[in-house]
Design brief:
Layout (H helix, E strand, L loop, with lengths): L4 H13 L13 H17 L5 H32 L14 H33 L2 E4 L6 H15 L6 E3 L13 E9 L11 E6 L7 E4 L6 E5 H6 L2 H4 L3 E13 L13 H13 L3 E7 L4 H10 L7 E4 L8 H7 L24 H7 L2 E5 L5 H12 L3 E8 L7 H9 L4 E6 L7 H13 L3 E3 L6 E2 L2 E8 L5 E8 L11 E8 L2 H16 L10 E3 L3 H17 L5 E6 L5 H13 L2 E6 L16 E6 L4 E2 L2 E5 L6 E5 L5 H5 L1 E7 L3 H17 L4 E4 L5 E3 L9 H9 L15
Length: 721
């Protein structure tokens, strides 16, 4: 496809006014198709023989987990729009397609992707594991010794949890939970009823979620053998259905709509509303049926009819139905040589003259880049707030955390003796149940718990301590971050943390907390950029400022690292900046609507995606600003939901040495990567970054830097920055 400057300008105006959505695909990639491209990049890592074998298995499991969420949220949302749009069946999306056309297109792409997943498993990973004496065996392949062991496990651990069900007038089809693995059986009674042969019926067995999906088996000659739990259960179904002949059997799984549809006026509280909708989620409409490719047509048709699905919503799998459970295989195989080598994060140390973290922060700001810098420093900051008697009050946002988090324990401890306020986001997708439990525990410990502003997820990452220092002055200390307060994910998500006692920054953080708990209006939130109040407007203003600098001949460049770029207004502003002469480098992990490298539209824009050992999660924004560089970090991506529909905080980094680190160590490394980087092309495809010179892996470089190596990065930064 060719986009001329005249066409691009004309289309841009039409899209901006919303008059011609059928032309939007000239400017924007579709967000859902862009997301599928991201999952393809993850699958590439599973197919890459240069990655350790068990890490490749893990990447394949991640693609399956990603696809689950895509189906139960994005595909389910399109199906909901189709159901709701009978009065306007021809309403078009941003790419000029109706909801039905978009669904048909995505269904084809998902089917192709699923085929690629199972090719990876069958043709690449299974042979590679066999070469390393790791086998996932069928029941028929087990030795007598292994069968005996498996049957002992079945008798003691599995059989007591099973409930076989036959589908007949007395036994309706059981409710199948979202993503629960089941076995469907086609059965026929061995005895005739009243001398007549009864027609075949369907039987269903739900695989217990409490049990591991892979059962380790004893093996000789150094082999690590496993059998899938459903394979073991299938081998014993005749025992469960005595009196029946088992004609055929197959594992299946149903994915349900997991969107929450809450109505503010119908709920007495956010907590009550979320609890109610979580119950409804478990009963959500089916949106996908996965079934083994060996399943008979009769089983598939009975299941499809029961779940009221169209044929294109049925996916036959040439292997384990739930590939995400291969994560258990990664955990069970104790072979360090087949995994990434261990990495020890750099521990934060106080300066020689500092007595504690508070004394340190009165002298300077501290920047941490996780997981290369240990997350223990963030935990230690909050634990210090709980334990230091001079700390008067604590305020904290929680979006996702872990059940054994030191941060959670510190807040519980602080609630006994301090004024503690915690804003818990109840609608953190798929963490709602745990967040409700944590909110109750915090309240019972004396903590003031709030749930932010209804309709706006609290996604900002903020912690504020108020302390009476030894000199008698009451000061604020803050942590601002790009990632969740979760010490588990902090080990494999890349994120940035800033610890500071700067009065302007900490005062702004307090204003954000006041906004979250009372929706108070502050005269100014600077130096923070806060969604949904100022972030969208200020983001556009900074891009437009670069545009003005370029037109005036001053240094003008933008480097932005985000997880997603799907806000049309931001994309259009970047197009305008490119046309004015601004050099723009974008590091976008996942979805990207922007079409780079189009003459007359975006020829000065380059987009790359990094997929590697760690999940890229940090958001960093660098603006040349006519030679007076601004660098920001924060919790918000360039997506409408982050800019307009969530409570987010983006913060400036002003200390010169920290700005240099962000620009010359972190951003420079990602822009120089020619090993794990893929470059987005004008047609929407991604290609590997060309290796001119020595291979350079940004994440490996950052690990080496954390371990004390002194290494230079290849020169790739735009001259204007």
């Amino acid at each position: 496809m060719t986009v001329t400057k005249k066409t691009a300008t004309k289309t841009s105006k039409r899209v901006a006014t919303g008059k011609s959505p059928e032309h939007a695909e000239n400017l924007f990639f579709n967000r859902d198709e862009s997301w599928l491209k991201f999952n393809e990049r993850v699958l590439e890592e599973a197919n890459d023989p240069t990655n350790p074998l068990m890490e490749r298995v893990k990447f394949l499991a991640i693609t399956a987990s990603n696809l689950d969420e895509f189906v139960e949220i994005r595909v389910a949302g399109i199906l909901q729009r189709i159901e709701d749009s009978y009065s306007q069946p021809h309403q078009l999306d941003e790419g000029g397609l109706t909801a039905q056309q978009r669904l048909d297109r995505l269904s084809q792409q998902i089917a192709s992707f699923v085929e690629a997943q199972y090719r990876c498993w069958n043709e690449s990973l299974l042979p590679a594991m066999a070469a390393e004496k790791i086998r996932v065996l069928r029941w028929s392949e087990l030795s007598e010794q292994a069968r005996h062991q498996a049957l002992e496990f079945y008798a003691s651990e599995v059989d007591p949890l099973l409930t076989p069900v036959t589908i007949d007038p007395s036994h309706p089809f059981p409710h199948v939970l979202n993503k629960a693995l089941c076995i469907a059986l086609l059965l026929k009674r061995k005895r005739r009823t009243n001398g007549k042969q009864v027609a075949s019926i369907l039987g269903v067995v739900t695989i217990p979620r409490a049990l591991p999906r892979l059962i380790p088996l004893c093996a000789d000659d150094g082999y690590s053998d496993f059998i899938l739990l459903h394979e073991l259960i299938e081998s014993q179904v005749e025992r469960m259905f005595r009196g029946y002949e088992v004609l055929s059997r197959s594992a299946f799984r149903v994915t349900r709509n997991s969107n929450l549809y809450m109505q503010e006026e119908e709920s007495r509280s956010v907590l009550e509303s979320v609890r109610s909708e979580l119950y409804n989620r478990r009963k959500g409409d089916a949106v996908r049926l996965e079934v083994e490719s060996s399943a008979t047509d009769e089983i598939v048709e009975r299941l499809r009819t029961n779940f009221e699905l169209e044929p294109k919503q049925v996916f036959r799998t040439d292997g384990p139905v739930n590939l995400s459970r291969l994560m258990n295989l990664y955990a069970e195989v104790k072979r360090p040589a087949l995994k990434y080598p261990p990495f020890g994060a750099r521990e934060f140390r106080l300066s020689a003259k500092s007595t504690d973290i508070f004394h340190e922060l009165r002298q300077r700001d501290v920047l941490l880049h996780h997981p290369f810098d240990s997350y223990a420093a963030v935990e230690g900051f909050i634990e210090a707030g709980a334990q230091d008697p001079n700390v008067i009050s604590m305020k904290q946002t929680l979006y996702r955390t872990s059940k054994d988090s030191p941060i959670f324990r510190a807040l519980i401890e602080a609630g006994q003796s301090k004024d503690v306020t915690v804003v818990v986001e109840l609608m953190a997708r798929f963490d709602e149940d745990s967040n409700i439990r944590w909110a109750r525990e915090l309240e019972e410990a004396g903590v003031g718990v709030y749930h932010g502003i209804f309709g706006f997820k609290t996604h900002c990452k903020l912690s504020l301590l108020v302390r009476r220092d030894p000199d008698g002055v009451v000061r604020r200390y803050a942590h601002l971050g790009t990632g969740n307060y979760n010490p588990v994910t902090a080990r494999f998500y890349t994120d940035v943390s800033l610890l500071t006692s700067r009065p302007d920054m900490t005062a702004a953080v307090q204003k954000v907390f006041n906004y979250l708990t009372a929706e108070t209006e502050a005269e100014s939130l600077k130096p923070l950029l806060v969604a949904p109040l100022t972030l969208a407007k200020e983001t556009l203003a900074m891009i437009e400022r670069e545009t003005a600098h370029a037109r005036a001949g001053r240094p003008a460049a933008i480097i932005a690292k985000v997880n997603g770029l799907i806000d049309p207004k931001t994309v259009e502003a970047l197009y305008a900046a490119s046309q004015a002469g601004v050099e723009i480098d974008l590091i976008v992990r996942g979805m990207c609507l922007l079409r780079p490298g189009v003459p007359g539209l975006s020829e000065r824009i380059r987009v790359r995606s990094i997929v590697g050992r760690f999940l890229e999660h940090s958001r960093i924004f660098c603006f040349a600003n006519g030679g007076h560089e601004d660098i920001y970090c924060g919790s918000a991506d360039w997506m409408p939901r982050n800019l307009l529909e969530r409570c987010e905080a983006v913060f400036p980094v002003t200390q010169p040495d920290l700005k240099r680190r962000l620009r010359e160590e972190i951003l420079a490394a990602y822009l120089a990567d020619n090993t794990k980087a893929r470059l987005l092309q004008p047609d929407g495809s991604y290609v590997r970054a060309p290796q001119s010179g020595e291979p350079f892996n940004a994440q490996e470089y950052l690990m080496r830097i954390a371990e004390g190596c002194n290494e230079k990065i290849p020169e790739v930064m735009p001259a204007t920055v």
